[in-house]
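Lab meeting, item 3. Inverse folding demo.
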């Protein structure tokens, strides 16, 4: 099933193989991908150099688009969240974050998530299935359709196109590496989306063997790791993945990533009152980060349902930042965007089958 449901999930070679199998010329594959990923057409009929009979064959064999827009919400800060229904009636969310004329799209890579981090609402959905590459690409294409219809151009190339992709929506991207890799390759392909490696960031909770695989595959992307705690006791308490791959193993993998890709890792760090946003933790964070080529991207907890997990005060955050910065560790604070529409980090969750936020 994988790769066959959505025509956008296919690589060029796979599309050629299919074309041959239905008695068509393989060179049509380039034309079809051009329509799908460069022109980003809404209907097959717009593919004017593709014969109507091939158009029909395509419609019989594939979904050309498989997501349907169920809901679109706009935040006071301009962030937009979409709720999409998949072909098998599940729900995923996609968020577009406009910043100074650039547009980042936070894509979901799975329906739900199996990682069970205690501070994240997606965990409450459980895990349903991986998204296909075509579905992830469609999340992006649909945001482009929105920009195009609204006539909103980015400052980079004056096109109605998103400029950055962050794999930080629902799911654990590295547990869907095959499809995420395909997605990145299509995005990076100069003839298709033509997106630079630095514009795509995969965020992982720390699936260590898959970090190694990412390096082996040379997936065109940057790597962010949700470190979130500085010692195993604290980290295992909020992120069960740490029980399988503790911090030492995780750092071994990120060190290898840096060595082999010559690229730094971004450590994401959720600041939680009394646990991860303390002077002690700030010092431990310095011990981890000072000897490494890395950046820290901190974010104050977006409150969820757990009364034991609270966001820190502004003073506590400032004190934390001051300690870390005094040691010359690069740390930036991520602004929560789209909190009023539950579009911020850790807030994406839908009760499947009901289209209701849970
Ligand atoms: N599974 C991947 C990507 C999805 S989570 C990962 O764990 O990295 C994306 C980011 O949101 C992660 O850095 C995660 O730590 C952060 N996050 C999750 N819940 C959050 C919350 N309640 N408040 C702030 N950030 C949160």
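The presenter then showed the designed sequence:
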């Amino acid at each position: 099933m994988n790769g066959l449901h959505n025509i956008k999930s296919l690589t060029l070679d796979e599309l050629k193989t299919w074309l041959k199998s239905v008695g068509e010329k393989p060179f049509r594959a380039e034309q079809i991908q051009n329509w799908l990923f460069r022109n980003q057409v809404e209907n097959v009929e717009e593919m004017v150099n593709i014969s109507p009979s091939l158009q029909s064959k395509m419609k019989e064999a594939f979904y050309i688009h498989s997501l349907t827009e169920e809901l679109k919400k706009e935040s006071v800060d301009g962030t937009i969240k979409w709720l999409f229904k998949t072909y098998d009636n599940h729900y995923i969310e996609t968020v577009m974050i406009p910043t100074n004329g650039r547009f980042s799209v936070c894509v979901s890579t799975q329906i739900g998530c199996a990682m069970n981090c205690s501070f994240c609402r997606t965990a409450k959905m459980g895990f349903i299935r991986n998204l296909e590459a075509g579905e992830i690409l469609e999340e992006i294409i649909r945001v482009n359709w929105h920009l195009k219809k609204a006539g909103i151009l980015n400052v980079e190339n004056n096109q109605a196109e998103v400029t950055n992709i962050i794999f930080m929506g629902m799911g654990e991207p590295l547990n869907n590496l095959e499809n995420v890799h395909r997605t990145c390759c299509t995005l990076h392909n100069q003839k298709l989306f033509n997106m630079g490696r630095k514009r795509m960031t995969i965020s992982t909770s720390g699936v260590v063997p898959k970090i190694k695989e990412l390096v082996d595959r040379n997936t065109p992307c940057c790597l962010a790791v949700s470190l979130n705690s500085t010692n195993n006791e604290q980290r295992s308490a909020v992120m069960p993945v740490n029980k399988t791959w503790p911090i030492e193993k995780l750092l071994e993998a990120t060190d290898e990533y840096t060595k082999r890709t010559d690229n730094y890792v971004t450590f994401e760090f959720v600041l939680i009152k009394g646990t991860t946003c303390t002077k002690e933790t700030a010092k431990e964070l310095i011990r981890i980060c000072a000897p490494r080529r890395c950046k820290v991207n901190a974010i104050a907890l977006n409150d969820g349902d757990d009364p034991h997990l609270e966001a820190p005060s502004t003073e506590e955050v400032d004190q934390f930042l001051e300690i870390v910065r005094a040691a010359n560790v690069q740390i930036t604070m991520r602004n929560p965007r789209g909190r009023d529409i539950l579009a911020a980090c850790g807030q994406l969750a839908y009760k499947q089958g009901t289209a209701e936020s849970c």
